[in-house]
Specification:
There is one protein chain. With 151 residues, the protein is of the alpha+beta class. It has a domain of 72 residues. Helix content is 23%, strand content 21%. The protein has four helices and eight strands. Strands 1-2-3-6 form a four-stranded antiparallel β-sheet, with no helix packed on it. β7 and β8 form a beta hairpin. The longest helix is centred in the N-terminal third of the chain and has 12 residues. The chain starts with a helix and ends in a 7-residue tail after the last helix. 5% of the residues are buried.
Length: 151
């Protein structure tokens, strides 16, 4: 960090050390308006997902063995590996991404994707609307925008 702050030359490995320090402990941003609650993910009975911490718990269950004895399994937290949970339903194991499972369980808090920039409709040209520039129509008609086609 001192080399970068002082304007001294630094190499690739110095940069990696800075990145390691900067990124360490960083967690995904959790929306502030999400209330803390537990819900069952759709299609995965016997599991509970927390809305804020995104913790997934398998609920306690019992299985009757062929000899008649009952085997009890306690509730257990499922840890994600490479960003996805390993879950099983009816003896079939599958993997679901943490974000995808959270969005399916809490659809009202799903992240909206950005369109990536300002949007100008044809009726907006020349109007003085908040968030638009004055003189947009003049800029377009005056040659500020052009279309080039390739042969």
């Amino acid at each position: 960090m001192q080399k970068i702050d002082n304007g001294e030359p630094f190499d690739y490995y110095d940069f990696l050390e800075v990145l390691k320090v900067t990124v360490k402990g960083k967690r995904p941003r959790i929306p502030a308006n999400v209330p803390a609650e537990w819900r069952e993910p759709p299609g995965f009975p016997n599991y509970l997902l927390h809305s804020v911490t995104r913790e997934l718990w398998r609920q306690a269950y019992e299985i009757t063995l062929p000899n008649g004895s009952v085997r009890r399994y306690p509730a257990k937290v499922q840890k994600p590996h490479n960003g996805s949970f390993s879950v099983s339903v009816g003896g079939v194991k599958s993997s679901r991404g943490v974000q995808a499972l959270w969005e399916a369980t809490f659809p009202e808090h799903k992240r909206r994707k950005s369109t990536g920039g300002a949007r100008l409709d044809h009726e907006d040209f020349g109007r003085n609307l908040p968030g638009t520039w004055d003189g947009t129509a003049e800029w377009i008609s005056g040659g500020g925008v052009g279309v080039t086609t390739r042969p």
